[in-house]
Design a protein that fits this description.
Elements: H1 7-21, H2 25-35, H3 53-58, E1 69-75, E2 114-116, E3 119-120, E4 123-124, H4 131-142, H5 149-184, H6 191-195, H7 202-216, H8 221-228, H9 232-242, H10 276-286, E5 302-308, H11 317-329, E6 334-337, H12 347-359, E7 363-367, E8 395-401, E9 420-423, E10 427-431, E11 435-439, H13 442-459, H14 465-474, E12 477-478, E13 482-484, E14 492-494, E15 503-504, H15 507-519
Helix pairs in contact: 1-7, 4-5, 5-9, 10-13, 11-12, 13-15, 14-15
Protein backbone atom coordinates (compact mmCIF):
# COMPACT_ATOMS: atom_id res chain seq x y z
CA UNK A 1 0.00 0.00 0.00
CA UNK A 2 1.79 3.11 -1.21
CA UNK A 3 2.13 5.94 1.28
CA UNK A 4 4.14 9.05 1.97
CA UNK A 5 5.99 9.41 5.27
CA UNK A 6 4.08 12.24 6.92
CA UNK A 7 5.92 14.67 9.15
CA UNK A 8 3.90 13.75 12.23
CA UNK A 9 4.77 10.07 11.94
CA UNK A 10 8.43 10.91 11.39
CA UNK A 11 8.59 13.18 14.44
CA UNK A 12 6.80 10.58 16.57
CA UNK A 13 9.55 8.13 15.62
CA UNK A 14 12.20 10.68 16.52
CA UNK A 15 10.60 11.30 19.93
CA UNK A 16 10.61 7.56 20.63
CA UNK A 17 14.29 7.45 19.71
CA UNK A 18 15.10 10.35 22.04
CA UNK A 19 13.34 8.67 24.95
CA UNK A 20 15.32 5.51 24.31
CA UNK A 21 18.65 7.34 23.99
CA UNK A 22 18.13 9.03 27.36
CA UNK A 23 16.99 5.94 29.23
CA UNK A 24 18.94 3.32 31.18
CA UNK A 25 21.03 1.19 28.78
CA UNK A 26 19.57 -2.10 30.04
CA UNK A 27 16.05 -0.80 29.55
CA UNK A 28 17.10 0.57 26.18
CA UNK A 29 18.31 -2.83 24.96
CA UNK A 30 15.09 -4.49 26.10
CA UNK A 31 13.00 -1.82 24.41
CA UNK A 32 14.91 -2.10 21.15
CA UNK A 33 14.51 -5.87 21.08
CA UNK A 34 10.82 -5.64 21.99
CA UNK A 35 10.19 -3.12 19.22
CA UNK A 36 11.72 -5.51 16.68
CA UNK A 37 9.07 -8.12 17.47
CA UNK A 38 6.25 -6.21 19.12
CA UNK A 39 3.63 -7.62 16.76
CA UNK A 40 4.19 -11.02 18.41
CA UNK A 41 3.56 -9.72 21.96
CA UNK A 42 0.79 -11.11 24.13
CA UNK A 43 -1.31 -8.12 25.28
CA UNK A 44 -2.30 -9.98 28.46
CA UNK A 45 1.27 -10.08 29.74
CA UNK A 46 3.63 -8.12 27.49
CA UNK A 47 4.32 -4.44 27.03
CA UNK A 48 2.81 -4.02 23.57
CA UNK A 49 -0.51 -5.04 22.05
CA UNK A 50 0.53 -7.72 19.62
CA UNK A 51 -1.20 -10.87 18.38
CA UNK A 52 0.14 -13.43 20.91
CA UNK A 53 2.15 -15.42 18.37
CA UNK A 54 4.40 -17.23 20.84
CA UNK A 55 1.52 -17.91 23.22
CA UNK A 56 -0.37 -19.42 20.30
CA UNK A 57 2.50 -21.75 19.45
CA UNK A 58 2.72 -22.88 23.07
CA UNK A 59 -0.93 -23.95 22.92
CA UNK A 60 -0.40 -26.42 20.07
CA UNK A 61 -0.52 -29.90 21.57
CA UNK A 62 1.10 -31.71 18.65
CA UNK A 63 3.64 -29.36 17.03
CA UNK A 64 4.98 -32.12 14.79
CA UNK A 65 1.64 -32.59 13.08
CA UNK A 66 1.45 -29.84 10.48
CA UNK A 67 1.12 -29.10 6.80
CA UNK A 68 2.92 -26.27 5.00
CA UNK A 69 0.48 -23.61 3.82
CA UNK A 70 1.22 -21.71 0.62
CA UNK A 71 0.63 -17.97 0.92
CA UNK A 72 0.75 -15.88 -2.26
CA UNK A 73 2.22 -12.42 -1.71
CA UNK A 74 0.65 -10.34 -4.45
CA UNK A 75 2.70 -7.17 -4.32
CA UNK A 76 5.21 -4.94 -6.04
CA UNK A 77 8.19 -7.26 -5.98
CA UNK A 78 10.00 -9.54 -3.53
CA UNK A 79 13.66 -10.38 -2.99
CA UNK A 80 13.67 -14.18 -3.30
CA UNK A 81 17.36 -14.28 -2.36
CA UNK A 82 16.79 -12.78 1.09
CA UNK A 83 18.58 -14.77 3.78
CA UNK A 84 15.50 -14.95 6.00
CA UNK A 85 13.02 -15.81 3.22
CA UNK A 86 14.71 -18.12 0.72
CA UNK A 87 14.15 -21.27 2.80
CA UNK A 88 10.43 -20.52 3.08
CA UNK A 89 9.69 -19.92 -0.59
CA UNK A 90 7.17 -21.90 -2.58
CA UNK A 91 8.97 -23.79 -5.34
CA UNK A 92 7.22 -25.00 -8.47
CA UNK A 93 8.48 -28.57 -8.40
CA UNK A 94 7.12 -29.28 -11.89
CA UNK A 95 9.19 -26.54 -13.53
CA UNK A 96 12.88 -26.82 -14.49
CA UNK A 97 14.66 -23.57 -13.76
CA UNK A 98 16.26 -21.68 -16.62
CA UNK A 99 15.48 -23.98 -19.52
CA UNK A 100 13.07 -21.57 -21.21
CA UNK A 101 10.36 -24.23 -21.39
CA UNK A 102 6.92 -24.29 -19.80
CA UNK A 103 7.56 -27.72 -18.26
CA UNK A 104 4.36 -27.92 -16.24
CA UNK A 105 2.23 -26.54 -19.11
CA UNK A 106 0.59 -23.93 -16.89
CA UNK A 107 1.20 -21.17 -19.44
CA UNK A 108 4.13 -19.53 -17.62
CA UNK A 109 7.74 -20.28 -18.51
CA UNK A 110 10.24 -20.86 -15.67
CA UNK A 111 7.84 -19.74 -12.94
CA UNK A 112 9.95 -21.28 -10.19
CA UNK A 113 8.91 -19.05 -7.26
CA UNK A 114 5.92 -17.31 -8.83
CA UNK A 115 5.16 -14.90 -11.66
CA UNK A 116 5.40 -11.22 -12.64
CA UNK A 117 2.37 -9.84 -14.51
CA UNK A 118 3.90 -6.38 -14.96
CA UNK A 119 7.01 -7.32 -16.87
CA UNK A 120 7.88 -8.61 -20.30
CA UNK A 121 10.75 -9.22 -22.68
CA UNK A 122 11.51 -5.49 -22.56
CA UNK A 123 11.98 -5.38 -18.79
CA UNK A 124 9.78 -4.60 -15.80
CA UNK A 125 7.28 -1.85 -15.10
CA UNK A 126 8.41 0.65 -12.47
CA UNK A 127 6.24 3.79 -12.30
CA UNK A 128 2.72 3.72 -13.70
CA UNK A 129 -0.33 6.00 -13.66
CA UNK A 130 -2.94 6.02 -10.93
CA UNK A 131 -6.39 4.83 -11.94
CA UNK A 132 -7.85 8.35 -11.81
CA UNK A 133 -5.21 9.43 -14.34
CA UNK A 134 -6.06 6.52 -16.63
CA UNK A 135 -9.73 7.48 -16.49
CA UNK A 136 -8.86 11.11 -17.16
CA UNK A 137 -6.70 10.05 -20.12
CA UNK A 138 -9.69 8.30 -21.71
CA UNK A 139 -11.50 11.61 -22.07
CA UNK A 140 -15.22 12.31 -22.07
CA UNK A 141 -16.05 10.23 -25.12
CA UNK A 142 -14.32 7.03 -24.00
CA UNK A 143 -15.08 7.10 -20.29
CA UNK A 144 -16.77 3.82 -19.25
CA UNK A 145 -20.05 3.70 -17.37
CA UNK A 146 -20.89 4.55 -14.65
CA UNK A 147 -18.16 7.22 -14.44
CA UNK A 148 -19.10 10.87 -14.89
CA UNK A 149 -16.65 13.01 -16.86
CA UNK A 150 -17.11 16.16 -14.79
CA UNK A 151 -16.50 14.22 -11.58
CA UNK A 152 -13.41 12.48 -12.97
CA UNK A 153 -12.00 15.74 -14.30
CA UNK A 154 -12.58 17.44 -10.94
CA UNK A 155 -11.12 14.54 -8.95
CA UNK A 156 -8.04 14.41 -11.18
CA UNK A 157 -7.42 18.15 -10.85
CA UNK A 158 -7.80 17.96 -7.07
CA UNK A 159 -5.40 15.05 -6.74
CA UNK A 160 -2.84 16.66 -9.03
CA UNK A 161 -3.00 19.86 -6.98
CA UNK A 162 -2.53 17.89 -3.74
CA UNK A 163 0.50 16.10 -5.12
CA UNK A 164 2.10 19.28 -6.42
CA UNK A 165 1.52 20.91 -3.02
CA UNK A 166 3.15 17.94 -1.28
CA UNK A 167 6.05 18.08 -3.74
CA UNK A 168 6.59 21.77 -2.95
CA UNK A 169 6.50 20.94 0.77
CA UNK A 170 9.09 18.16 0.57
CA UNK A 171 11.23 20.15 -1.86
CA UNK A 172 11.21 22.97 0.70
CA UNK A 173 12.54 20.64 3.39
CA UNK A 174 15.13 19.27 0.99
CA UNK A 175 16.25 22.77 0.04
CA UNK A 176 16.58 23.64 3.73
CA UNK A 177 18.91 20.68 4.32
CA UNK A 178 20.93 21.42 1.18
CA UNK A 179 21.19 25.12 1.95
CA UNK A 180 22.24 24.57 5.55
CA UNK A 181 24.84 22.01 4.52
CA UNK A 182 26.24 24.35 1.88
CA UNK A 183 26.39 27.20 4.40
CA UNK A 184 28.26 25.05 6.93
CA UNK A 185 30.27 23.30 4.21
CA UNK A 186 29.37 19.95 5.83
CA UNK A 187 27.09 17.04 4.95
CA UNK A 188 26.15 16.25 8.56
CA UNK A 189 25.08 19.17 10.73
CA UNK A 190 24.92 19.96 14.44
CA UNK A 191 21.91 21.58 16.06
CA UNK A 192 23.69 24.95 16.10
CA UNK A 193 24.65 24.76 12.42
CA UNK A 194 21.07 24.03 11.39
CA UNK A 195 19.77 26.71 13.75
CA UNK A 196 22.02 29.29 12.06
CA UNK A 197 20.43 28.68 8.67
CA UNK A 198 17.52 31.05 7.98
CA UNK A 199 14.30 29.74 6.42
CA UNK A 200 11.07 31.45 5.41
CA UNK A 201 7.52 30.26 5.92
CA UNK A 202 5.82 29.32 9.16
CA UNK A 203 5.61 25.60 8.50
CA UNK A 204 9.27 25.27 7.52
CA UNK A 205 10.30 27.25 10.61
CA UNK A 206 8.33 24.84 12.81
CA UNK A 207 9.95 21.86 11.11
CA UNK A 208 13.42 23.33 11.57
CA UNK A 209 12.68 24.03 15.23
CA UNK A 210 11.54 20.42 15.78
CA UNK A 211 14.66 19.04 14.07
CA UNK A 212 16.97 21.32 16.03
CA UNK A 213 15.30 20.17 19.24
CA UNK A 214 15.78 16.56 18.21
CA UNK A 215 19.46 17.13 17.46
CA UNK A 216 19.96 18.80 20.85
CA UNK A 217 18.62 15.64 22.46
CA UNK A 218 21.10 13.49 20.57
CA UNK A 219 19.18 12.33 17.52
CA UNK A 220 21.09 11.50 14.35
CA UNK A 221 21.04 14.23 11.71
CA UNK A 222 21.35 11.72 8.89
CA UNK A 223 18.48 9.58 10.21
CA UNK A 224 16.22 12.62 10.59
CA UNK A 225 17.05 13.84 7.11
CA UNK A 226 16.53 10.42 5.54
CA UNK A 227 13.20 9.95 7.34
CA UNK A 228 11.80 13.32 6.36
CA UNK A 229 12.92 12.93 2.76
CA UNK A 230 11.87 9.31 2.45
CA UNK A 231 8.81 10.36 0.50
CA UNK A 232 10.65 12.64 -1.96
CA UNK A 233 11.13 10.01 -4.63
CA UNK A 234 7.54 8.88 -4.23
CA UNK A 235 6.07 12.36 -4.54
CA UNK A 236 8.36 13.17 -7.46
CA UNK A 237 7.07 10.03 -9.17
CA UNK A 238 3.50 11.00 -8.30
CA UNK A 239 3.81 14.25 -10.20
CA UNK A 240 6.00 12.97 -13.03
CA UNK A 241 4.37 9.59 -13.61
CA UNK A 242 1.32 8.74 -11.47
CA UNK A 243 -0.57 11.93 -12.40
CA UNK A 244 1.02 12.47 -15.82
CA UNK A 245 -1.51 11.59 -18.56
CA UNK A 246 1.21 11.59 -21.23
CA UNK A 247 3.22 8.87 -19.48
CA UNK A 248 2.74 5.34 -20.85
CA UNK A 249 4.52 2.21 -19.64
CA UNK A 250 2.35 -0.73 -20.70
CA UNK A 251 4.38 -1.39 -23.83
CA UNK A 252 7.00 -2.90 -21.52
CA UNK A 253 4.63 -5.78 -20.76
CA UNK A 254 3.75 -6.41 -24.39
CA UNK A 255 0.24 -7.71 -23.77
CA UNK A 256 -2.96 -6.68 -25.53
CA UNK A 257 -4.12 -4.53 -22.64
CA UNK A 258 -7.62 -4.05 -24.06
CA UNK A 259 -8.16 -7.83 -23.90
CA UNK A 260 -9.29 -8.32 -20.29
CA UNK A 261 -9.46 -12.10 -20.81
CA UNK A 262 -5.79 -12.42 -21.77
CA UNK A 263 -3.84 -14.43 -19.18
CA UNK A 264 -0.47 -15.58 -20.43
CA UNK A 265 1.86 -12.59 -20.39
CA UNK A 266 4.59 -11.25 -18.10
CA UNK A 267 7.94 -12.71 -17.01
CA UNK A 268 9.56 -14.47 -14.06
CA UNK A 269 11.44 -11.43 -12.72
CA UNK A 270 10.01 -11.23 -9.22
CA UNK A 271 11.96 -8.40 -7.60
CA UNK A 272 11.12 -5.70 -10.12
CA UNK A 273 12.74 -2.25 -9.88
CA UNK A 274 11.89 -1.94 -6.18
CA UNK A 275 11.44 -5.04 -4.01
CA UNK A 276 11.15 -3.28 -0.64
CA UNK A 277 7.39 -3.47 -0.11
CA UNK A 278 6.87 -7.09 -1.11
CA UNK A 279 9.96 -8.27 0.75
CA UNK A 280 8.81 -6.54 3.93
CA UNK A 281 5.31 -8.04 3.60
CA UNK A 282 6.68 -11.53 2.93
CA UNK A 283 8.94 -11.33 5.99
CA UNK A 284 6.04 -10.45 8.28
CA UNK A 285 4.22 -13.57 7.14
CA UNK A 286 6.99 -16.07 6.78
CA UNK A 287 10.53 -15.05 7.69
CA UNK A 288 12.12 -18.22 9.07
CA UNK A 289 11.49 -18.43 12.80
CA UNK A 290 14.18 -19.07 15.42
CA UNK A 291 17.13 -19.01 13.01
CA UNK A 292 18.98 -16.13 14.73
CA UNK A 293 18.57 -13.97 11.63
CA UNK A 294 16.79 -10.64 11.55
CA UNK A 295 13.27 -11.34 12.76
CA UNK A 296 10.59 -14.02 12.96
CA UNK A 297 7.57 -14.31 10.73
CA UNK A 298 4.17 -15.07 12.26
CA UNK A 299 3.73 -18.49 10.64
CA UNK A 300 6.23 -21.28 11.21
CA UNK A 301 5.09 -23.66 8.46
CA UNK A 302 4.52 -21.53 5.40
CA UNK A 303 5.70 -21.27 1.81
CA UNK A 304 5.68 -17.86 0.12
CA UNK A 305 4.59 -17.69 -3.51
CA UNK A 306 5.55 -14.40 -5.17
CA UNK A 307 3.08 -12.77 -7.57
CA UNK A 308 4.07 -9.32 -8.81
CA UNK A 309 1.12 -7.14 -9.90
CA UNK A 310 1.69 -3.74 -8.22
CA UNK A 311 3.75 -1.01 -9.94
CA UNK A 312 4.82 2.30 -8.46
CA UNK A 313 1.34 3.68 -9.06
CA UNK A 314 -2.02 1.92 -9.16
CA UNK A 315 -2.28 -1.77 -9.96
CA UNK A 316 -4.42 -2.65 -12.97
CA UNK A 317 -7.55 -4.78 -12.63
CA UNK A 318 -6.44 -7.16 -15.38
CA UNK A 319 -3.19 -7.95 -13.56
CA UNK A 320 -4.91 -8.34 -10.19
CA UNK A 321 -7.44 -10.78 -11.63
CA UNK A 322 -4.72 -12.83 -13.31
CA UNK A 323 -2.59 -12.75 -10.17
CA UNK A 324 -5.43 -14.21 -8.13
CA UNK A 325 -6.07 -16.95 -10.69
CA UNK A 326 -2.37 -17.81 -10.93
CA UNK A 327 -2.10 -18.12 -7.14
CA UNK A 328 -5.20 -20.32 -6.92
CA UNK A 329 -4.22 -22.57 -9.82
CA UNK A 330 -0.73 -23.12 -8.41
CA UNK A 331 -1.69 -24.15 -4.92
CA UNK A 332 -1.94 -21.03 -2.76
CA UNK A 333 -4.43 -21.35 0.11
CA UNK A 334 -4.10 -17.72 1.23
CA UNK A 335 -3.54 -14.60 -0.87
CA UNK A 336 -2.12 -11.49 0.80
CA UNK A 337 -3.05 -8.27 -1.00
CA UNK A 338 -1.41 -5.23 0.59
CA UNK A 339 -2.54 -2.74 -2.05
CA UNK A 340 -5.56 -0.72 -3.03
CA UNK A 341 -6.94 2.18 -5.03
CA UNK A 342 -9.96 4.47 -5.22
CA UNK A 343 -11.30 3.41 -8.64
CA UNK A 344 -11.75 0.07 -10.37
CA UNK A 345 -13.11 0.45 -13.91
CA UNK A 346 -12.84 -3.30 -14.63
CA UNK A 347 -13.97 -4.53 -11.26
CA UNK A 348 -16.07 -7.29 -12.82
CA UNK A 349 -13.00 -9.27 -13.88
CA UNK A 350 -11.54 -8.96 -10.37
CA UNK A 351 -14.90 -10.09 -8.96
CA UNK A 352 -14.81 -13.14 -11.22
CA UNK A 353 -11.30 -14.00 -9.99
CA UNK A 354 -12.36 -13.59 -6.35
CA UNK A 355 -15.33 -15.88 -7.00
CA UNK A 356 -12.91 -18.38 -8.53
CA UNK A 357 -10.76 -18.26 -5.39
CA UNK A 358 -13.90 -18.58 -3.29
CA UNK A 359 -14.98 -21.70 -5.21
CA UNK A 360 -11.55 -23.26 -4.71
CA UNK A 361 -11.37 -22.62 -0.96
CA UNK A 362 -8.74 -19.87 -1.07
CA UNK A 363 -8.80 -17.02 1.47
CA UNK A 364 -7.98 -13.44 0.52
CA UNK A 365 -6.53 -11.05 3.11
CA UNK A 366 -6.65 -7.40 2.02
CA UNK A 367 -5.31 -4.13 3.45
CA UNK A 368 -7.96 -1.51 4.19
CA UNK A 369 -5.84 1.47 3.10
CA UNK A 370 -3.84 4.33 4.57
CA UNK A 371 -6.06 7.35 3.89
CA UNK A 372 -7.53 7.55 7.43
CA UNK A 373 -10.98 7.37 5.83
CA UNK A 374 -14.20 5.43 6.28
CA UNK A 375 -14.36 2.65 3.69
CA UNK A 376 -18.11 2.43 4.31
CA UNK A 377 -18.40 5.86 2.68
CA UNK A 378 -15.43 5.85 0.27
CA UNK A 379 -14.76 2.43 -1.27
CA UNK A 380 -11.23 1.05 -1.45
CA UNK A 381 -10.62 -1.44 -4.27
CA UNK A 382 -10.44 -4.36 -4.57
CA UNK A 383 -12.98 -5.27 -1.93
CA UNK A 384 -15.33 -8.02 -0.81
CA UNK A 385 -18.47 -6.49 -2.31
CA UNK A 386 -19.31 -7.83 -5.75
CA UNK A 387 -20.90 -5.59 -8.36
CA UNK A 388 -24.21 -7.40 -7.90
CA UNK A 389 -24.30 -6.41 -4.21
CA UNK A 390 -23.41 -9.80 -2.72
CA UNK A 391 -20.29 -10.20 -0.57
CA UNK A 392 -17.39 -12.62 -0.93
CA UNK A 393 -17.23 -15.19 1.87
CA UNK A 394 -13.47 -15.77 1.55
CA UNK A 395 -12.35 -12.20 2.30
CA UNK A 396 -10.80 -10.54 5.39
CA UNK A 397 -10.31 -6.75 5.33
CA UNK A 398 -7.65 -5.45 7.71
CA UNK A 399 -7.08 -2.10 9.44
CA UNK A 400 -3.90 -1.16 11.32
CA UNK A 401 -3.42 -0.77 15.07
CA UNK A 402 -0.48 0.74 16.95
CA UNK A 403 1.64 -0.56 19.84
CA UNK A 404 -0.97 0.42 22.41
CA UNK A 405 -3.72 -1.33 20.48
CA UNK A 406 -5.35 1.88 19.28
CA UNK A 407 -6.26 2.55 15.66
CA UNK A 408 -3.24 3.79 13.70
CA UNK A 409 -3.59 7.44 12.73
CA UNK A 410 -3.31 6.62 9.02
CA UNK A 411 -5.58 3.56 8.93
CA UNK A 412 -8.82 3.31 7.01
CA UNK A 413 -11.73 1.84 8.94
CA UNK A 414 -15.36 0.83 8.40
CA UNK A 415 -18.06 -0.67 10.58
CA UNK A 416 -19.41 -2.71 7.67
CA UNK A 417 -16.38 -3.02 5.38
CA UNK A 418 -13.34 -3.60 7.63
CA UNK A 419 -13.31 -6.93 9.47
CA UNK A 420 -10.62 -6.41 12.11
CA UNK A 421 -7.40 -4.64 13.03
CA UNK A 422 -3.81 -5.88 13.42
CA UNK A 423 -0.38 -4.40 14.26
CA UNK A 424 0.75 -2.05 11.50
CA UNK A 425 2.98 0.66 13.02
CA UNK A 426 6.79 0.46 12.96
CA UNK A 427 6.84 -3.22 12.06
CA UNK A 428 10.37 -4.63 11.75
CA UNK A 429 10.80 -7.00 8.83
CA UNK A 430 12.90 -8.00 5.83
CA UNK A 431 14.34 -5.52 3.34
CA UNK A 432 16.01 -6.25 -0.01
CA UNK A 433 19.64 -7.38 0.12
CA UNK A 434 19.17 -9.44 3.30
CA UNK A 435 18.61 -6.28 5.33
CA UNK A 436 15.91 -5.37 7.85
CA UNK A 437 13.96 -2.27 8.79
CA UNK A 438 10.69 -0.73 9.94
CA UNK A 439 7.65 0.12 7.84
CA UNK A 440 4.14 1.26 8.78
CA UNK A 441 0.80 0.83 7.04
CA UNK A 442 -2.21 -1.42 6.66
CA UNK A 443 0.20 -3.10 4.24
CA UNK A 444 1.99 -4.40 7.33
CA UNK A 445 -1.18 -5.23 9.29
CA UNK A 446 -2.52 -7.32 6.41
CA UNK A 447 0.37 -9.87 6.39
CA UNK A 448 0.15 -10.15 10.19
CA UNK A 449 -3.38 -11.49 9.66
CA UNK A 450 -2.26 -13.62 6.72
CA UNK A 451 0.45 -15.04 8.97
CA UNK A 452 -1.99 -15.84 11.77
CA UNK A 453 -4.31 -17.46 9.24
CA UNK A 454 -1.46 -19.59 7.87
CA UNK A 455 -0.36 -20.49 11.39
CA UNK A 456 -3.82 -21.81 12.26
CA UNK A 457 -4.36 -23.61 8.97
CA UNK A 458 -0.95 -25.30 9.02
CA UNK A 459 -1.76 -27.07 12.32
CA UNK A 460 -5.41 -27.68 11.45
CA UNK A 461 -5.20 -28.48 7.71
CA UNK A 462 -8.50 -30.36 7.71
CA UNK A 463 -10.47 -27.18 8.36
CA UNK A 464 -12.15 -25.64 5.33
CA UNK A 465 -11.45 -22.09 4.18
CA UNK A 466 -14.80 -21.00 5.59
CA UNK A 467 -13.97 -22.60 8.95
CA UNK A 468 -10.52 -20.99 9.11
CA UNK A 469 -12.02 -17.59 8.35
CA UNK A 470 -14.62 -18.16 11.05
CA UNK A 471 -11.87 -19.07 13.52
CA UNK A 472 -9.97 -15.85 12.76
CA UNK A 473 -13.03 -13.60 12.88
CA UNK A 474 -14.48 -15.13 16.05
CA UNK A 475 -11.20 -15.03 17.97
CA UNK A 476 -10.52 -11.31 17.79
CA UNK A 477 -9.62 -9.50 20.97
CA UNK A 478 -12.64 -7.19 21.22
CA UNK A 479 -11.70 -3.74 22.47
CA UNK A 480 -14.36 -1.75 24.30
CA UNK A 481 -11.99 1.14 25.06
CA UNK A 482 -11.79 4.37 23.07
CA UNK A 483 -9.36 5.47 20.38
CA UNK A 484 -8.65 8.60 18.41
CA UNK A 485 -10.53 8.47 15.12
CA UNK A 486 -7.97 8.09 12.31
CA UNK A 487 -7.56 11.41 10.52
CA UNK A 488 -8.62 13.41 13.56
CA UNK A 489 -6.44 14.82 16.32
CA UNK A 490 -9.29 15.27 18.79
CA UNK A 491 -12.29 13.08 18.02
CA UNK A 492 -12.48 10.10 20.38
CA UNK A 493 -14.59 7.09 19.40
CA UNK A 494 -15.10 3.54 20.72
CA UNK A 495 -12.53 1.26 19.04
CA UNK A 496 -15.22 -1.35 18.47
CA UNK A 497 -17.10 0.98 16.11
CA UNK A 498 -14.28 0.96 13.53
CA UNK A 499 -14.73 -2.58 12.24
CA UNK A 500 -17.23 -5.42 12.00
CA UNK A 501 -15.73 -7.40 14.84
CA UNK A 502 -14.67 -4.42 16.94
CA UNK A 503 -11.31 -5.98 17.72
CA UNK A 504 -7.80 -7.09 16.82
CA UNK A 505 -6.61 -10.44 15.51
CA UNK A 506 -5.30 -12.78 18.22
CA UNK A 507 -3.36 -15.92 17.31
CA UNK A 508 -3.66 -17.59 20.74
CA UNK A 509 -7.44 -17.31 20.79
CA UNK A 510 -7.53 -18.46 17.17
CA UNK A 511 -5.66 -21.66 18.08
CA UNK A 512 -8.07 -22.26 20.97
CA UNK A 513 -11.04 -21.84 18.64
CA UNK A 514 -9.44 -24.05 16.01
CA UNK A 515 -9.02 -26.82 18.59
CA UNK A 516 -12.72 -26.60 19.48
CA UNK A 517 -13.80 -26.52 15.85
CA UNK A 518 -11.62 -29.47 14.87
CA UNK A 519 -13.09 -31.52 17.72
CA UNK A 520 -16.62 -30.66 16.71
Amino acid sequence: MKKFLLLGLALTTFNLSFAQENSNEDVLDLTRNALKSWQHNDPSKDRFTGVSTNTALSKISNPNNFKDIVVAVMDGGTDVEHEDLKNNLWINADEIAGNGIDDDKNGYIDDIYGWNFIGGKNGDVGPDNTEITRLYKLGKENLPAPYNWKEIKKAYAKKLKENKKMKDFIDGINNMFEGAEKQANKSTLTATELQNYKVSGGTLKLIKKAIVGALVQGASYDEIKNSLLEGKKQIDNAVNYHMNPTFECRSIVGDNYSDMNEKFYGNNSLAGPDALHGTHVAGIIGAVRNNDLGMDGVADHVKIMVVRVVPDGDERDKDVANGIRYAVDNGAKIINMSFGKSHSPNKSIVDDAVRYAESRGVLIIHAAGNDNSDNDLTPNYPNAKYNNGSVATNWIEVGASDMSGKAAAFSNYGKTTVDLFAPGVEIYSCMPGSKYGNESGTSMACPVVAGVTALVWSYFPNLTAAQVREVIINSVEVDNETTTLPGSSKKIVPFNTLSKTGGRVNAAKAIENAVKMSIN
